[in-house]
Amino acid sequence: MLITGLSLFREERPLTLGQSAVVPLAKVSGGRWEEAQQLTRWEGYVDWRNRPALKGRHGGMLAASFVLVVEILENLAYLANASNLVLYLSENMHLSPSKSANNVTIFMGTAFLLALPGGFLSDAFLTTYHIYLISAVVEFLGLIILTVQARSASLRPPECNPPNIPCQEVDGGKAAMLFLGLYLVALGVGGIKGSLPPHGAEQFNEASPQGRKQRSTFFNYFVFCLSCGALIAVTLVVWIEDNKGWEWGFGISTIAILLSIPIFLAGSSFYRNKIPSGSPLTTICKVLVAALINACTCKSPSNAIVNMSTSPSYPAETGKEAEEGTDKATEFNPQPPTESLKFLNRALVNKPVHPVLECTVQQVEEVKIVIKILPIFGCTIMLNCCLAQLSTFSVQQAATMNTKVRSMKVPPASLPVFPVLFIMILAPVYDHVIIPFARKVTKSEMGITHLQRIGIGLVLSIIAMAVAALVEIKRKRVATDSGLLDSASPLPITFFWIALQYLFLGSADLFTLAGLLEFFFTEAPTSMRSLATSLSFASLAMGYYLSTVIVSIVNDVTDHSGNKPWLSGSTINHYHLEKFYWLLCVLSALNFLHYLFWAIPYKYRSTRANE
């Protein structure tokens, strides 16, 4: 059977991206052999040569393991520069501290937002396999530009030594080269974030309990590998950038992303790649427009909803077809539209205004799913706003404290090591201890549901902001009692107090990010999975932007109230940072209540299917 199967495989012609993975059957008596051959195919998937993907040969944990290794290198290449970029812009490109901080925020936000078009292209036109390769090459080109500029003094502003030699801010062609390199990197990172997680998740068979459990393990270890890359980036590479030069830091990032390409290609023969099914945005727009037009043109709701037995999209079953078995009957008698979001059911009419606006029940239900998961996405933005504080105020707080560990002085920029290490410890414990225990207790396949996991992350972010406020109160009390409010000398308090908020926020990030990735992938329609998964990274981007907006609003409101702005002063010791953290704590608590409003009544796809 194996030899025959292989010979049949060699004789097949490659499929185009728009064709089905079903292969014409050989004419063998009885039909059982043909049925067995059909069962060896992964329906809707092809291999890297565009041939039908085969069960037992393509997909599985082995294929996903290549993705995990690639994620370590990819995140190393990105974070090695992003975590320390503000110093490069201020010290080497002579931008002001405010301009440097704004440029870094915009760069990181843009990189994560570009995950959306990366996911869209993966769903609509190209496979996640091709989008990753294209994006990795784009990021590689951007890093080469940055490495060359960091290496050549003639491509950077002249060195300065105030007040004798004033600093000249980068401008003209040098600035163009800098931002071209940065935003090529952002474009590449966005494409990778939008394609790599769904590419790994697609390797598992969601029709079996084992496949779903393996997919859950994959998302846990995806966050683990992301943290591994971050650990190397914020320790080794940051140290090299500070002590050996930025050309070495950019060079290491360039080598890392270059190495990721052949490693990714090494798994090509094991991958199964989902065939793109066209633009998901077209379906969403068509259903929304059709529902709106039909609501305005149809006088009676009963006339608006299509009669399922005579729908042109779902033709009625003939007597001959009824004799061919229940599978055929099921195909032509789909379930009626659900009662939720009834307005969208108006898109189903017997005679649409235009043939282009003709919608099927499946398309309407897919749009309903997208609308239902969007509030969950919105509720995670506040968490990422809190995470943004780790790279801003928390680092400035630590810089005023005693950062010595015995004889070694720890740079404040290396504080992200704490949440990264905690995630690396917690991720395996969660997957191998907590989840199996939860499965035994709840007697369910997931143990802890995706929404419960996200909710735990949101609660941890509330605790983190409360801890941050209490630690800041203690830090300022020490500064006042020591008479060091206006001094640049380190305060007699260890920076390990700051590590507490890092640990809580790191835990929140693990629970929420892994939960979001799996939730969006499993709940989204098959034709929109890459786009939906990229919402996890879009939430990060919006969190960064929201942080900037909240800081501006807080300063404006407190300034106009006749008091000193909370986040203004000669040093951070004069900031009312504890009040700002309490504000974030309250906003996070209100956001959690908002999250519960949407999460409690939410029904998973498996539940809806059973109903």
Key traits:
two-stranded parallel ribbon, mainly alpha, three-stranded antiparallel beta sheet, 24 helices, 7 strands, 611 residues, globular
Topology of helices and strands:
Layout: H1 2-11, H2 32-39, E1 41-46, E2 52-54, H3 61-82, H4 85-92, H5 97-113, H6 115-124, H7 128-151, H8 172-201, H9 209-243, H10 246-266, E3 273-274, H11 280-297, H12 301-304, H13 319-322, H14 326-332, H15 361-379, H16 381-387, H17 393-399, E4 401-402, E5 404-405, E6 408-409, H18 417-442, H19 450-481, E7 491-494, H20 496-523, H21 529-533, H22 535-560, H23 577-599, H24 605-610
Parallel strand pairs: 4-7
Antiparallel strand pairs: 1-2, 1-3, 5-6
Helix pairs in contact: 3-8, 3-9, 3-10, 4-5, 5-8, 5-22, 6-7, 6-8, 7-8, 7-10, 9-10, 9-18, 9-20, 11-15, 15-23, 16-20, 16-22, 18-20, 19-20, 19-23
> How many beta-strand elements?
7
| Computed CA radius of gyration, to the nearest angstrom | 27 Å
Mean pLDDT, nearest integer?
79
Report the β-strand fraction as a percent range: under 5%
Low-confidence stretches: 1-30, 33-37, 307-333
* Number of helical stretches of at least 4 residues: 24
Spatial sequence of strands, sheet with the most strands: 2-1-3
Q: Give a short account of the largest sheet.
A: 3 strands, antiparallel
- Fraction in helix: 55-70%
Protein name: Protein NRT1/ PTR FAMILY 4.6
What does this entry show, briefly?
This protein is mainly alpha-helical and 611 residues long. It has helices at 2-11, 32-39, 61-82, 85-92, 97-113, 115-124, 128-151, 172-201, 209-243, 246-266, 280-297, 301-304, 319-322, 326-332, 361-379, 381-387, 393-399, 417-442, 450-481, 496-523, 529-533, 535-560, 577-599, 605-610; strands at 41-46, 52-54, 273-274, 401-402, 404-405, 408-409, 491-494. 65% of the residues lie in helices and 3% in strands.
